Amino acid sequence: MTALLTADMCPTCTGVHGQPTDWPRCPRHGHLLYQLRITADGFTYTCPAWKCRHTHTQPERATMTATHEANRAALAIRDGQELFDPKQLAALAQLGIKDASNADLAVFMHYCQRTGLDPFSRQIYMIGRTVKENGQYVTKQTIQVGIDGYRIIAHRAARRDGVTLSYGKTFWYKHGERNPYDLWLHDDPPAGASVTVYVDDKPFHGQVRFASFAAYNKDGTLTRQWASMPDHMIAKCAEAQALRKAFPHDLGGIRTDEETAHETSARRTVTATAEPPRRPAREPAPEPEPITTQTLREAVSNEFSRLGIEDPEECAVYGYQLAGKPHGTELDLDDLNRVLSALVDCETIAHIREITGGDAA
Is 128 part of any domain? Predict the structure, then answer.
């Protein structure tokens, strides 16, 4: 077993390193670890094994082999990075993101930077949904995280704000009854669930109905997970709602898998159960299309639509305010990136007014 692992395929570059003595390993699984993020403390790696939480941070000044040095930053998202590079785009394509526009990818990068989650370890991903617009079917991309990603963001926010995050009991409810159950032992699915999280003893409640979130097959039966663990799935929806209420600026605008499972037209482009990237084809990955002002303008327009702002003049006023430029000034790539980054962080129009200090009048 050990001999095989010393020549294992690296999940980062999909190559074989032979015996990389300084490449960190997971003590439980033995897998080579691939890079999570580059930070001021060094290089943080995470185990690719399913549900494994093992990480390892290696200082920048640590001694590394030449092979390790060449491959250590293959997929890592650097602090301040604005666009995916060709290697990252190739890895995203391996995970299923093949038809996303440059505008969608730009928004996705902003969400990755905003949340600090890693798309290559499937903490955050894009989902393409087929919707009908003006008589035609088009694909709309939405960004989601798993419940584990939600918990990571919430705990980071709590540490950042110097507050204590804690959980109350989870309760389930039966059809026709109002009495809560703190343990679901029935064979039939619960009618709903509630979860309370506390931030410095201040309660934030998440209360959801099973009928609002359960996912069904075309024949009307519950999907596998919702049929086998209905209490667990609906409890995760309630937890996500409670965490979003507790940390709206960090979790606003992002939904979890469980909350969107009922949208049967969804087509997941990157799944939480997707396999790690396999060895790429011999053909080199195509160079990404250049990001232009038009691409960023489309991304900004999409974010305004998400916030319910459709009037062009209103969008223009807010756009110039967020860019910090006089009205009518030509906005360059840096200005548009600044506007896009601010909009991604906004959950409602009220947040824009809070940032700009007033209305668009």
Answer: yes
Query: How far, in Å, CA of 260 to CA of 274, rounded?
Result: 18
How far is Cα 269 from Cα 223, in angstroms, rounded to an integer? 19
Q: Is 204 within 8 Å of 246 (Cβ atoms)?
A: yes
Hey, what are 334's tokens? 């840096």
Q: Is there a single domain that holds both residue 31 and residue 63?
A: yes
Residue 137 amino acid letter:
Y
Which residues form the domain of 138? 86-268
Q: Are residues 125 and 264 in the same domain?
A: yes
CB–CB of 35/71 below 8 Å?
no
CA distances from 276 to 122, 145, 194, 352 (A): 9, 17, 35, 38
Task: Tell me 287's DSSP state.
Answer: P
Q: Note the pLDDT tens digit of each residue in 195-238.
A: 999 999 899 999 999 999 998 888 888 888 899 999 999 999 99
For the chain, the domain total comes to 3
Q: Distance from CA of residue 259 to its chain's centroid?
A: 14
Structural domain includes residue 124: yes
Distance between CA atoms of 255 and 170, rounded to whole angstroms?
20
Q: What is the pTM of this model?
A: 0.51
State the Cα–Cα distance between residues 246 and 34, nearest whole angstrom.
Answer: 32
Q: Residue 286 falls within a domain, yes or no?
A: no
Q: Which range, 114-118, 119-123, 235-239, has the best average confidence (pLDDT)?
A: 235-239
Q: Is 281 contained in some domain?
A: no
